[in-house]
Design brief:
The protein has helices at residues 111-120, 159-174, and strands at 4-6, 13-17, 24-26, 32-37, 44-45, 52-59, 70-82, 88-97, 102-104, 107-109, 125-132, 139-140, 144-150, 178-183, 199-200. It is mainly beta and 207 residues long. The strands form 3 sheets. An 8-stranded antiparallel β-sheet has the order 1-2-3-8-7-6-4-5, covered by helices on one side. A hairpin with a 6-residue loop joins strand 1 and strand 2. The protein binds zinc ion.
């Protein structure tokens, strides 16, 4: 299995991994111009290793409904600009959706990335979390409140230690300050076939 990325707005698959499986190559250069946008400043970012931004597309072949600098909402990181397969050009990974992005004390944070860290911490956690974004818009200067289900075999008496471990792990992996609150396993619906919203705008009985 390899990763691909695309959509039906301009075509089907615009990005796909080669056998090296270390990021997706652009596979649509003759049909779609792809640029990288800084969603905050509105500036176009050069395709360089380590660059991050939202991809915007201009379709060259569409006639009746042209799309010019169409905002995909996909926020990506440029892994490299060369590859062992011989392809040149940007090789990318999608980090999250621009619509979901939160800005915590100047750091871009994606709910899906927090979810991945919490999932990696099973069995200390139950792999389930929610973010409480109880502020206006997407930006906060405070710590980000994250509610995490403790693993079914964890003693609630050890919550203080577990809270510190999770906060440190989030800081190390995603470079932001979290305020973690622990709740019992199976408090929330698990992500499954149906999508669940990771972000809550309020949570009245914060433990
Ligand atoms: Zn390659």
């Amino acid at each position: 299995c390899t990763e691909m990325l695309g959509g039906t707005d301009l075509g089907v698959t615009y990005w796909a991994e080669c056998d090296a499986q270390s990021g997706m190559h652009m596979v649509n250069m003759d049909y779609v111009i792809t640029e990288l946008l800084d969603p905050e400043s509105g500036q176009i970012i050069p395709w360089e290793k380590g660059a991050e931004g939202e991809m915007i597309y201009t379709a060259l072949g569409r006639q009746a409904s042209p799309l010019v600098r169409f905002r995909s909402g996909d926020y990506i990181e440029v892994i490299d600009t060369e590859c062992s397969c011989g392809r040149t050009g940007p090789k990318i990974r999608c980090t999250g959706r621009t619509d979901d992005m939160l800005i915590v004390r100047g750091a871009n944070v994606f709910p899906s990335a927090i979810n991945s860290v919490i999932t990696e911490m099973v069995p200390d956690t139950n792999g389930v979390m929610r973010i409480v974004a109880d502020f206006e818009g997407h930006t906060t200067q405070g710590a980000l409140t994250v509610i995490v289900e403790r693993g079914p075999n964890r003693d609630p008496a050890d919550d203080v230690t577990l809270k510190k471990i999770i906060e440190q792990r989030l800081r190390d992996s995603l470079v932001f300050k979290a305020d973690v609150h622990l709740v019992a396993a199976d408090t929330f619906e698990k992500p499954g076939a149906a999508k669940v919203a990771f972000v809550l705008r309020k949570y009245p009985d914060l433990p």
